[in-house]
Amino acid sequence: MEPVSENPFVPPGAPRPAPTPDSGSHEPGRPPLGPPPVGYVSPTGYAPSAPPPSAQPATAGPHVQGPFGTAPAHPQHQGSERPGQAPLDGWGRPVPDQRQAPARGLGAGWMVLVLVVALIGGALGGWGAQTIATGTQPEAASTPLPTGTEAARDLGDLDGTAQIAAQVLPSVVAIEVRGDQGAGTGSGFVLRADGYILTNNHVVSAGAGAGTRIEVIFSDGSQSTAEIVGRTAEYDLAVLRVDRDGLTPLPLADSDQVVVGDPVVAIGAPLGLQGTVTTGIVSALNRPVSAGSMDETAFINAIQTDAAINPGNSGGPLVDARGEVVGINSAIAQPPGVPGAAPGSIGLGFAIPSNQARRTAEQLIETGSATYPVIGVLLDSRHTGEGVRVATEGQPGQDPLTPGGPADLAGIEPGDIILAIDGRPVTQADELIVAIRAKAPGDSAVLTVRSGQEEREVRVVLDEVEAG
Questions:
Q1: CA distance 234 to 201
Q2: Distances (CA, A) of 211 to 180, 183, 194
Q3: Is 266 exposed, middle or buried, given 0-12, 13-18 or 19+ CB atoms closer than 10 A?
Q4: How many CB atoms lie within 10 A of CB 53?
């Protein structure tokens, strides 16, 4: 907050300095005339100061100062009083003979008094006019203003986002991780009533080492220590478990039924603000997103949303209009050209589809690890032309094509260009990888392949590889 300059006027109730002594005589019992008392503040907050007598507006002809301004002087004030009658002042009252005293106008102190009286009088006049116009009595000013219904609201009275939030919030948790390798926070939600919780791998990866403590904070403020059941960097998912029963799980919707434009609600703990609710729509589907570090890169066939997602939302649910989970909030876009800048929501958030999350979570709960599908090829990341090219050279311990793998069995050769998968064009290696990993091992895929000048379609059955 910027510093505020001191008020040159003393606040009401503060000690006031004594008024300047009057330079002339005054009537007995009347306060000495002088400058206005310090500390006067008008009802508008503006603190006026009375101008000196010389600053009063000059008007033609003799005038006197009265309680409501300047008025023409009465003839008797100009020496025309009747014999034996004492002269009258500007207030119409007899005054002592001042022929020996210097002439002066009304003191500045009285100017302040006149102003106060005028303001109060104006306020009373307006009040009186309102009373006459409305026909009400003064007591009507204390009549209470109308209020809304005092009936308590329950879940059945809510609609739209409020009802979804009330339904989902009890099942959403905040997660705090502290370990030797670092600390982090994120979100998650109840997957099963017996204590299983789903979140992102990158939320708990800081706590993968010994001595790590993971705390789960529920919507009612209670906390429980959690253990990692299983996690996979390839899909950026992790399952935790707390020693609790009777939790309320969130149902996982069929993400294949999601369409662009569907309304969605994101719930989580962005920047540690637990229970934050934001709304938006599904902006796009099948966005190829690669996130994470070079050691742990996740390839996500993501749902894009414009619901505000910020750091700390990771692992929280993206739910549809029925309150069912369609995605797990995992990543946000960062404006290009600002590496290292603290990312925040720019309306480009990405969630792992619920169908992928369901399949992976079931594997993690059952075996502690997950698998992902492959076609058994190395891809040339230096290729910049159309499609994605199969590498012509292998790497240590790996051939361009896995002998006996899906691509090898389908007749694909090193140097072939893969143009599309299931009719969906691919132009980058990540797009092909994401499209493959969106399937399950054992599923089939149709690849459009170019060998030299010849194009053909081949069907491959995806192989299974255990995630590291």
A1: 9
A2: 7, 12, 25
A3: buried
A4: 13
Q: Which of 56-70, 94-108, 416-430 has the highest mean pLDDT?
A: 416-430
Q: Write the pLDDT tens digit of every residue in 280-332.
A: 999 999 999 987 766 778 899 999 999 999 999 999 999 999 999 999 999 99
- Active-site residue identified among 205, 236, 306, 408: 236
Query: What one-letter code names the amino acid at 394?
Result: G
Question: Global pTM?
Answer: 0.67
Cα–Cα separations (whole angstroms), residue 87 to 78, 92, 98, 128, 318:
9, 9, 10, 37, 91
* 449-455 CB contacts, 8 Å cutoff, 24+ apart: 449/412, 449/416, 449/417, 449/418, 449/419, 450/387, 450/416, 450/417, 450/419, 451/413, 451/416, 451/417, 455/419
List the single range of 87-91, 405-409, 413-417 with lowest mean pLDDT. 87-91
C-alpha 48, offset from chain centre = 43
Calpha distance 288→333 (Å, rounded): 12
Whether residue 187 contacts residue 175, with contact meaning beta carbons closer than 8 Å, is answered with: yes
77 is catalytic: no
**Among positive and negative, which fits the CA dihedral 334, 338, 344, 346?**
negative
How far is residue 203's CA from residue 268's CA, in Å, rounded to a whole number?
13
- Known catalytic residue: 5? no
Backbone φ and ψ of 118, nearest 5°: -65, -40
CA angle 278, 282, 286 (to 5 degrees): 130
Tokens representing residue 159 in the block: 């609609």
* pLDDT, position 340: 58
Give me the catalytic one of 187, 314, 330, 345.
Answer: 314
pLDDT per residue as tens digits for the range 448-462? 999 988 999 999 999
Q: Is 314 a catalytic residue?
A: yes
**Domains located in the chain, CATH noted:** 1-53+61-92+106-121 (no CATH), 162-242 (2.40.10.10), 255-335+343-367 (2.40.10.10), 372-466 (2.30.42.10)
Contacts of 79 (CB under 8 A, 6+ apart): 87
Confidence grade of residue 129 (pLDDT, cut at 50, 70, 90): very low
Residue 42: pLDDT band by 50, 70, 90 thresholds?
very low
Neighbours of 119 (CB within 10 A): 13
Nearest alpha-carbon partner for 418 in 456, 392, 382, 381: 456
Annotated catalytic residue, options 171, 187, 202, 345:
202
Higher confidence at residue 206 or residue 256?
256
Query: CB count, 10 Å around CB of 418?
Result: 22
